[in-house]
Structures are given as C-alpha cells and as structure tokens.
Design a protein that fits this description.
disordered N terminus; globular; 9-stranded antiparallel β-sheet; Jelly Rolls; binds alpha-L-arabinofuranose
Length: 663
C-alpha cells in the first residue's frame, strides 16, 4: 500500500473508531520496521549508596575488617570481663601505607574472657547449615597466645557456630578456618576470643559465606546478582553516581585504589556517610572489596557492556565543587587512559598485566567511558575537552559519555545550565549525552514525548538516571509504589519510540538496604538474608527482557502523537526480528479496563498463539515489601488470535506486553 493510501485508510479507521463509541484502535506498522533498538537500551546503574556494596552486594560480613575507618574500632566491641588483665592497642605501621593500622591484643593473665566482637552491617545474616570462611592476618609478638576461638552468635548471644585458629608465627600470616551454622539469624555477630597469655597482632579480619556468586572468593551475594542477571541488562554503569566525584577531591573514587589483594585496597569514606542529615550513617565506608576488577567481572557475568564513569577533576558540585586546576589535570586524564588499558590492553601492557594477575588475561572489551557524573558549567566543558582529545587520539573508537549536570529541576539554574551544556554538545558531538530525571510520577506520565523533538543529527542519548519521586527528590518518604512504577513504564514507552536517538537507559539507584539506606526509592531492596524487586524493578525487567530489535511505528486512533490520546493508554511497539514477533507494550493508566482493537498493519500472523505478559496491582499505592515481595509480579499467559486485527482489553492500571508471531 502506498503511503498516501495508508494515511487515508488510517484516517478513515480512526474516524470510524471515534464514531462507534471511542474504542481505541492501536495500529502498528509491522511491515516497515524503523530504527534498530540498541542492545544496550536497558541497563543497570550501580552506585555504592544505601549499603549497596559493603553490607550489600559484596558478601563480606565483617565491617571495618582492617580497622581503617576514621574511628579504628567502629563496628567492633571489646569483650572483657571486669577485672580482666588484658587490653588492646591500635598501632599504625607507616611501612604499609595502603593499610597502616592493626590491632595489638595484650593478655597479661590467661584464662580470662577477652576478645573482640564485630557487629557486621546492621548484624550479619547467617543461615542454618551454610558454610562460612573466617580469615585473619596475625602475628605473635610475645608470650603464648595459643589460640583464637571464633564464634558466631545470634541476637540472643546463643552460639551458632564456632571454630579455632592456632599456631601463630612471629611473621604476619593469614589463617583460615571454616564454620557451619546450626541456625539462621538475621543479625548475628562474630566473636573472637583470645586464649593464652602474651601479645598478638591482628588485621584484615574477614568472614565470607562460601555461597557467593559463582562460588568466587571475595565474591558477591548470589541472590542480589541473580536479581540483576534476571534483568538481562545491556550495560552496567559503575561506580555511580556522585560517589565518582566525592564530597571533595580527596574523597573521589580512584579506581587504582580498588585493585589487588584486599589488604592493599585503600579504604575511603563513603560520601553518603554524612550527606543526608536525616539518614546519617557514620559507619559507611568503602573497603573496595568490590572494586573495578570485580565490576568488570560482574558486567561480563551479566552479559552487559561495562560502562565505567571516571572523575574528571571535579568534586560534587552540590558539595564542595572543588576543581583540579587545569595545569594539574594530567593524572586524572592518565587515570582514564590507564583504565582503558586495564580493561582492554594486552597482557604485556602495564595495566593489562595487572588485570591478568588478578585472574583475567582476556580483555574486558570496554567500549565506552563516562567523563564525570553530574558535572556542569564552563569548568566541565574545558575539562571534558582535554579528556575527549586525549582519549580519542589514543582510542578513537572509545565511546565518550558527556554529562548534562543533574536533574534540571534540582540543581542551581538547572535548565539554563543544561541548555548551556547542550550548546557545546551539539558542536563537540560527544558520542553520547547523559540526562537525569528525578521527578514526580506525574511528570513521567506527562513527558512520554520528551525526546520526540531532540535533534537527530547530534549525540545519542543516555537516560542515565531516572526514578519517579512520590514525595520529592531525596525525601525519605518516597515510596516504590505501583503508581511510580506504572508512570515510569509510560515514560519508557516514549523512550522506546525514540530508540533511534535514545540508546541507553537505567533506573537509579539500584539497591537499598532495609536498615541502612540513605536514599529512596530504589530498584531492589534487601536485608541481611533476603532480597526482592520493587514494582519498578519488574517494569525495568520486562522492558529489558522484551526490547525487540527494531522500532515499529504505532498510532492510537490514527494519531502518531500518542501523548495526545485521552484514553489513558501509552504504548510502543517493536519487532523482534530474531524470532519474528511483534512486541506491543501498552500502559493503561486509567482505573477502568480499556477495550481496544489492535491492528497489525502490513503483516500476516505466523501463528495463532500470542504471549501476554501482565504487570498490575489493585491500587496505585501498592508496593512490594519483605513480607509481600511478589505482590506486584508479572504473569504470563497465552492468547489465541486468528487475525492480525484483534481485540484486547487492557486491565486498569496495568502494563501489558503482547508478543505476537508475525511474518
Ligand atoms: O542516584 C542517587 C544520586 O542521584 C546519584 O549519585 C547522583 O548521580 C544523582 O544526583
């Protein structure tokens, strides 16, 4: 059918639809697939906020294992019977600048209860019959401390597991012992009792479950990684977020400090430790046990493109806004260059050797890098230019991601700053530009066409952080409600319709510890034992599992501007060429069912069974929780259809994905 006949037919059908009682008609032009959907369209954003790394994804159970927190015994308690002639000292060994502190335990009289106890991250999640590996670096300085008695206890101080370590030498050595727990506890503790008389130095005290993701030592919590793997993300952005920038430059994320053996990773305070007065977490530090090597490995495990974001000589502009002078920018740029070599360089190269020594001789095949996080102003532009020139000169194929500040509504002169940056980006043409949206749910609903009018000749778009805020940005009252998730789904149909321009998107932040969060809403929630996906998680997951390969034009009642329709429907359509299916995503925000005609134009059915994936809940205020983790959960059914034109009733407040076999 030629295009003018097609338009006339659409117009007639639309007019007819209006005349017969406004039953909406969704027309999908299957015969003419449009832009390719980037395989990176739906990805994940990881930042160590809300105890996402230490106390979360990183499975270590001991907090402040190397006594390097500002307060050396934070997280530890001295166990001592009154009158016991024993004490501990904190020593600093400047010959080990990456991990200078350790604890000296002095016992003058044996047979007395003396030791140290670690509280974990809001306790330690310990499971019945599960195996744990305890390790400790120690050296005997004097006398005869003949054993350390290691014990896991529950909230009532009842023993869950115990073991013993003995035979200390006078040199630093690492000792291991395994424990199996008799029972489960959400908030267990680790006690270390000293046996004998003398002086023993200890450091790097660690307790890991044996059950980590892929059984790796120094590994990750398997349930949390599984939730990520289930999303089949196209990319993994790391390590943030504002954490890249730091409160000031001394606290910025320095990836080189996160490599090598865990006792050589330089501890750093977490900027979310003190950011929010209402949610202060003075025990929040970055051990970097989950460091850049592990992030690359995780991306590889997930089949996701690694997307590191690097500091560009600017601290967080909401905080100190410290700048590195331009004539001192070289080490920052060198960090970016070295990172590319670390990820992709041959094993003979300086940084490729380190990657190989850590266990991964093959390159990680990193293709993109973000220059700064939420940066703005002329200072950003001049720094970006230096990074861009140096990186592109050496690695012309490396895709560069430029920032547009923060959400335009929350940073000083936001909208103007964004316009200012765009005036450069349209000239300099970074490969990709990153935009962030932390707004009310209604904004997401009203702005499904946000990218319709963007210039198609400029950079590609990365919607690098977004989440609807039910109360306000940073408000502790924000919820992961079904309303937020549903309106984000509506927004995502708009992103998908604009997939010729928008090539990457991700929700932020990713994780929230139920007892230790600073920021909500978050995609995935967990405590020390269990985890669950929010309603927003299932929206992200469904878009990620059903992206299709090509955009299909879609109209509602003959109108391609779907934002204009008043029927409560938001929709996008794609073709999955790999298995010949049309994928139609429909969000019904109305609180009544909407019966619609689906007209798959210019195609024939290749089978009579379509798949229907439905995500809905009774009330917009509903949400998933530890007690009801699957209150909002996708349901898959099949639908018999006999024609490329069929009826479907979209449930109230629902996201529906139809997968229809087509020729
Ligand atoms: O997602 C939480 C924070 O919001 C990120 O760290 C930052 O980039 C944004 O302002």
């Amino acid at each position: 059918m030629n295009s003018s006949v097609y338009r006339r037919t659409m117009w007639l059908l639309a007019t007819l639809a209006c005349m017969v009682g406004a039953q909406p008609q969704l027309t999908v032009n299957v015969g003419q697939p449009g832009a390719t959907i980037s395989p990176t369209m739906y990805g994940i954003f990881f930042e160590d906020i809300n105890f996402a790394a230490d106390g979360g994804l990183y499975a270590e159970l001991v907090k402040n294992r190397s006594f390097e927190f500002d307060r050396p015994l934070q997280g530890w308690q001295i166990l001592k019977k009154s009158g016991a002639d024993a004490r501990i000292l904190i020593l600093r060994d400047e010959t080990r600048p990456r991990n200078p502190r350790f604890v000296r335990m002095l016992v003058n009289r044996p047979g007395q209860e003396f030791g140290l106890s670690n509280e974990g991250f809001r306790g330690m999640g310990i499971r019945q019959n599960a195996d744990y590996r305890f390790s400790i670096a120690a050296r005997q300085v004097a006398g005869d401390i003949h054993a350390l008695r290691i014990e896991l206890v529950n909230e009532e101080a009842q023993s869950l597991a115990h073991t013993q370590i003995e035979g200390f030498s006078s040199d630093w050595q690492t000792y291991h012992s395994d424990l199996t727990s008799d029972a489960t506890a959400l908030q267990a503790r680790l006690n270390i009792w000293v046996e004998g008389r003398g002086t023993l130095d200890i450091d790097v005290v660690s307790l890991f479950p044996k059950d980590t993701w892929k059984g790796r030592e120094n590994g990750l919590r398997p349930d949390l990684v599984q939730l990520l793997a289930d999303m089949q993300p196209g990319f993994l952005r790391f390590p943030g977020g504002c954490i890249v920038e730091g409160f000031d430059l001394s606290q910025r994320y320095q990836w080189k400090n996160t490599l090598g053996p865990i006792n050589e990773r330089i501890l750093n305070i977490n900027r979310w430790n003190f950011e929010f007065k209402h949610r202060q977490t003075p025990d929040y530090y970055q051990s970097y046990g989950l460091g850049f090597y592990e992030y690359f490995l995780l991306a590889e495990d997930l089949g996701a493109e690694p997307m590191p974001i690097i500091n560009c000589g600017m601290a967080c502009q909401f905080n100190t806004a410290e700048l590195t002078p331009m004539d001192q920018l070289d080490p920052y740029v060198q960090d970016a260059i070295d990172l590319i070599e670390f990820a992709n360089g041959p094993t003979e190269s300086n940084w490729g050797t380190i990657r190989a020594q850590m266990g991964h001789p093959e390159p990680f095949n990193m293709k993109m890098i973000g220059i700064g996080n939420e940066q703005w102003g002329p200072q950003y532009v001049e720094r970006y230019k230096v990074f861009a020139k140096t990186i592109k000169d050496k690695y012309p194929d490396m895709q560069l991601i430029a920032a547009t500040g923060s959400d335009g509504t929350i940073f000083p002169n936001g909208e103007e700053e964004i316009e200012y940056l765009w005036s450069f980006w349209s000239q300099l043409k970074p490969d990709i530009v990153d935009e962030h949206f932390y707004r009310k749910p209604e904004w997401f609903l009203e702005n499904t066409g946000w990218y319709n009018s963007y210039d198609r000749t400029g950079p590609k778009l990365f919607v690098g952080e977004y989440a609807s805020q039910s109360v306000g940005v940073g408000s502790p009252e924000n919820r992961n409600s079904w309303k937020c998730a549903l309106y984000e789904a509506a927004f995502m149909t708009g992103l998908e319709r604009n997939a010729d321009l928008v090539t990457m998107t991700c929700y932020a932040p990713l994780f929230g510890h139920e007892q230790a969060w600073q920021w909500r809403p978050d995609l995935i929630w967990f405590d020390n034992l269990i985890s669950y996906g929010s309603a927003n998680y299932y929206v992200q997951k469904l878009f990620g599992l059903h992206p299709g390969t090509h955009v299909l034009a879609i109209q509602i009642d003959g109108n391609p501007n779907l934002e204009k329709n008043k029927k409560g429907l938001h929709a996008s359509a794609t073709l999955d060429k790999r298995n010949s299916q049309a994928i139609i995503k429909v969000v019904n925000v109305a609180d009544n069912p909407v019966k619609a005609t689906i007209n798959l134009h210019d195609t024939k059915l290749a089978g009579s069974i379509a798949t229907v994936i439905l995500l809905t809940s009774k009330y917009l205020t509903d949400e998933n929780s530890l007690n009801e983790p699957r209150k909002i959960y996708p349901e898959e059914t099949s639908l018999e259809i006999n024609s490329s034109r069929f009826m479907y009733t979209f449930k109230p407040i629902s996201l529906t994905i139809l997968r229809v076999p087509v020729r």
